[in-house]
Amino acid sequence: MKIQVPRGTQDILPGQVEKWHYVEGVMRRLAAEYGFQEIRTPVFEHTELFQRGVGETTDIVEKEMYTFEDKKGRSLTLRPEGTAGAVRAFIEHSYFAQPQPTKFYYIGPIFRYEAPQAGRYRQHHQFGIEVFGSAEPITDAEVILVAVDLFSRLGLADLTVKLNNIGCPKCRKDYREALIAYFRPQVEALCADCRNRLERNPLRILDCKQESCREVVAGAPEITSHLCAECQEHFSGVQRYLEAAGVKYEVDSGIVRGLDYYTRTVFEIIYTGLGAQSTVCGGGRYDNLIETVGGPPTPGVGFGMGIERLLLTLEKTGCYLPEKAGPDLYIATLGQAAKEAAFAALLDLRRAGLRAVTDLMGRSLKAQLKYANKINARYVAILGENELAQGRVQVKRMADGQDAEVAWPDLLAWLKAQMQADSRKEEEVQDDSR
Ligand code: ATP
Ligand code: MG
Questions:
Q1: Lowest mean pLDDT among 22-31, 195-204, 254-263
Q2: Banded model confidence at residue 431, pLDDT cuts 50, 70, 90
Q3: Atom from ligand 1 closest to the CA of residue 309
Q4: Helices in 66-157 by DSSP H: which ranges?
Q5: Nearest protein Cα to ligand 1, atom 23
Q6: Ligand 1 atom 8: the closest Cα is on which residue?
Q7: Are residues 310 and 375 in the same domain?
Q8: Residue 59 CB–ligand 1 contact under 6 Å
Q9: How far, in Å, from the CA of 154 to the mean position of ligand 1?
């Protein structure tokens, strides 16, 4: 039997991985500019962390976790989201005792047992940020701004920010009663899951994706009319900061999010061109989570962004994404002495930052040139016995076949100057096309 990747997972191969490097690079730069520091937590954690942190009545904990026992019988789970691990680390390393806020970001794989389809996988990757320690509405706005700014730097324009406030436990108690009173007479119209949720977690019904449930939900009471004065004030505060930063958003009382830990602000950023899997980024405030996980009462707010969905969106909208890059230089050689000289020279070329390769296959000169063409080398140098004896080398620019003869010891300096001129020209072409 041919062994393939497990269902819902994929290899990221050369040609694709350059695109990942590019978006991850933009994410890291942006996160640093906003004052976030990277955190790398384990890919698996004690199952209890997610049971407590994500919530027992969520889809994630009920159905989607990859949970297993290790050889000592400990229950471990592949992380199904990134916030719980960041919170655990915040508590474990006593970050709460330091001046706040604490601003973390992470990039890494997330595991959920889901029905695989376009934009929905069993292993996907998220860029996530978390701010711990601040309950101020400016913080919620800054978190949303990071996502919006990232999209804009990647050239994405037609995304929609949907914003809501789902209250605090105080105002949600009221709302919960109102929801139960609304859904109970129509319980027959709900799916089996939602009938189950009615008493346990009626808010979850608002997030159900079943068509029949969606129809019932359409007439449900809205949280916004049940908010307490503090939550109201927080909500308008967030909106004021977003307006100050020129961020366009829509208030949408249908956004409740699939995790139990959210309080007050929740948001999703949507690209409708992705079909059913339209949410590229989702997040919100979780003022009780850190305490629930065992830390001192500490407010928090963050988001998780699906990198696969982001890349799909960039591809669909024709945004810039880098192509597979070939080496800057391929040195083709003829004869053993030339081969050894090239091998030694490559050391300097590479240390100077050039991507430079030579023949590892013992190919004929002709076959080497064919191969250099195939791997998209920008320049090809030919070093034979004659060239070596004369201390010269033939160099060819592959884009237009332009030839030059260069003194062998000057190859590095010549190539650097040449490549600088090439990229200046590329910039000019780009300017002209604006
Ligand atoms: P959805 O409603 O689409 O299931 P979610 O609410 O479960 O999303 P979050 O837990 O908020 O998603 O995760 C943050 C982001 O991670 C999502 O907005 C999405 O871009 C991405 N994401 C979530 N689950 C998957 C998945 N199975 N495959 C690919 N990306 C995903
Ligand atoms: Mg989901």
A1: 254-263
A2: low
A3: 20
A4: 83-92, 137-153
A5: 306
A6: 279
A7: no
A8: no
A9: 20
Residue 434 has pLDDT above 60, yes or no: no
Model pLDDT, residue 394: 95
Give the Cα separation of 8 and 110 in Å (integer).
12
- Is 295 a residue whose pLDDT tops 70? yes
Domain count for the chain: 2
Residue of 112, 270, 277 to test ligand 1 pocket, by largest number of atoms within 8 Å of CB: 277
279 lines ligand 1 (CB under 6 A): yes
308: left (phi > 0), else alpha (psi -120 to 50), else beta?
alpha
Instruction: Say if 129 falls within a structural domain.
Output: yes
Nearest CA to ligand 1 atom 3: 277
CATH code of 376's domain = 3.40.50.800
> So what's the pLDDT on residue 413?
95
Mark whether 152 and 296 lie in a shared domain: yes
Average confidence score pLDDT of the chain: 94
Q: 237 CB less than 6 Å from ligand 1? A: no
Residues 6+ positions from 377 with CB-CB distance below 8 Å:
326, 327, 328, 329, 330, 357, 398
Contact between residue 146 and residue 28 where contact means Cβ atoms under 8 Å apart: no
Domain carrying residue 408: 329-433
Residue 411 corresponds to which tokens in the numbers above?
Answer: 């190859």
- CB 126 less than 6 A from any atom of ligand 1: yes
For residue 236, tell me if it sits in a domain.
yes
Are both 235 and 130 inside the same structural domain? yes
Same domain (yes/no): 32, 81: yes
For residue 101, whether the previous peptide bond is cis, meaning omega lies within 30 degrees of 0, is: yes
Q: Do 137 and 22 have their domain in common?
A: yes
Based on the domain organization, do 333 and 307 belong to the same domain? no
Q: Residues 117-131: pLDDT tens digits?
A: 999 999 999 999 999
The minimum-distance atom of ligand 1 relative to the CA of 119 is 29
Fill in the amino acid letter for 364.
S
| pLDDT tens-digit map of 140-180 | 999 999 999 999 999 998 899 999 999 998 888 888 889 89
